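A.,

Following up on our hallway conversation. Structure tokens first:
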């Protein structure tokens, strides 16, 4: 029985490693920079309309993901049948935002690049909140609105 479970787990790992590698070879289309686990991908034209300060702030946000190892933490969790929840992914974004020194530049960049309500929430938080230590300030409210 244990041996069968180990084979299933091994197949699960091989499956996700293959997905990960195929994502490196055939990257999904992103409009904004992202860390794929090995390097930061900068899609063509991602910084159109951004000031140099805003582009730098976006780069610093991605470097925060690299330092924090978010991609690898999420991947390890997936391999252990404990996928990262959407709320936790959102917290990872907020933590990476908080590591960027130029909050205003990141906030305006996010506002320009925003694809969804969460990006707009992050922009407002960076531009409006003076309380950088309150990581999830307003997040419950944002998630409640999004689920409506
Ligand atoms: Zn991010």
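Then the amino acids I'd put at each of the 148 positions:
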């Amino acid at each position: 029985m244990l041996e069968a479970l180990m084979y299933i787990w091994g197949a699960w790992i091989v499956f996700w490693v293959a997905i990960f590698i195929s994502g490196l070879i055939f990257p999904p289309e992103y409009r904004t920079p992202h860390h794929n686990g090995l390097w930061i991908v900068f899609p063509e034209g991602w910084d159109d309309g951004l000031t140099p300060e805003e582009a730098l702030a976006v780069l610093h946000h991605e470097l925060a993901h690299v330092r924090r190892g978010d991609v690898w933490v999420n991947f390890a969790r997936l391999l252990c049948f404990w996928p990262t929840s959407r709320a936790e992914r959102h917290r990872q974004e907020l933590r990476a935002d908080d590591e960027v020194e130029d909050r205003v530049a990141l906030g305006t960049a996010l506002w320009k690049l925003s694809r969804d309500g969460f990006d707009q929430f992050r922009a407002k938080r960076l531009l409006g909140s003076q309380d950088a230590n309150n990581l999830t300030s307003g997040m419950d409210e944002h998630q409640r609105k999004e689920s409506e």
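The CA atoms of residues 32 and 46 lie 6 Å apart. Curious whether your intuition agrees with the design.

B.
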